[in-house]
Amino acid sequence: MTRHKRWTIALFIFPCLCFLIVWVSFLNTSIIDDDQGMRYTIPQGASIKSVTQDLSSLNVIHHPFLFNLFVYLKGNKHELKAGEYLFPKGTTPARLLNQITTGTGMFHYTFTIIAGWNFKSLRAMLEQEPDLEHTSASMSDAAIMNYLGQPTLNPEGRFFPDTYYFSKGSSDLLLLKRAFKKMQNKLNAAWQERDSDLPYQTQNEVLTVASLVEKETPLNQERPMISGVIVNRLKKNMLLQIDPTVIYAVSTHYDGVISKKDLSSSNPYNTYKHKGLPPAPIAIPSMESIQAAVHPQHHNYYYFVAKSHLPREGHQFSATLIEHNMAVINAREHQEYFNDDLIRSYFKDEWYAKIPHL
User: pTM of the full predicted structure?
Assistant: First the structure.
């Protein structure tokens, strides 16, 4: 090989080698330096060319030619996944292309389902979430349950309270489906480990009891005790007389006070009129309330009353009606909202004295 040819080859190889070094360095050098990363949305139908130009104008991709060459060699220039991405600190052009062509690393929003909500409240809060697609807005409750594959099931209490992550534009039905499946799994597991002497025949009854416990107290230490009261009263064939069931039955016009009309309502949820459990849950129960329903505390209490209007002060539990009436009198001295006078006025005095109540 002549000296001239060697110089010709060297002059060709050297710039190619320099270009290769620059290109590899570009692909593996961080383009995101913000500790919080960068959020970026790729709309439906966007092309890699338009995204590259946009990221270049945002001073993210400094050498669009080198990036486009990488895209060309990768052969996936038409495979962008629409969505809102989070490019974390340290993202390189190579990692960025991998994200937007595989749909990984999208920015996730959160929606929290709160224990104690009823299904109407859950639907209202979903409709207020701006980053969800409100697919269910025009659907009835029955249509939603049909979508979930349970057309005959009451939706009340069926969605597990937790924080759920979703990408922008996701359907609210998909979120409900995840919450529904999670509640089923949690309830199935609790049912398998339930105490052997419970007066419940179905998981629906356990979920219903858990919802009653949830609405009665926010205190974890009280949940098994209240569950135990419910068990004791059911075994004695006593009316449960739980105020939240009455409130649920008349929720459309409830103004903070239970009326005589409410107490005399024939609504199947009115546990002052109908023995046994309500036909379905009245709210979304927490895992603590579900555990309390399947593992009630064994005691001889049949009554309880809130000690004050402050939930953290809990309830006074009583074994006899005489003890309970004394607890009621004491509670009335410490809370203005207590409604026992109204309940007493509804029942005849001689009948009221014989009827166990909560």
Answer: 0.80
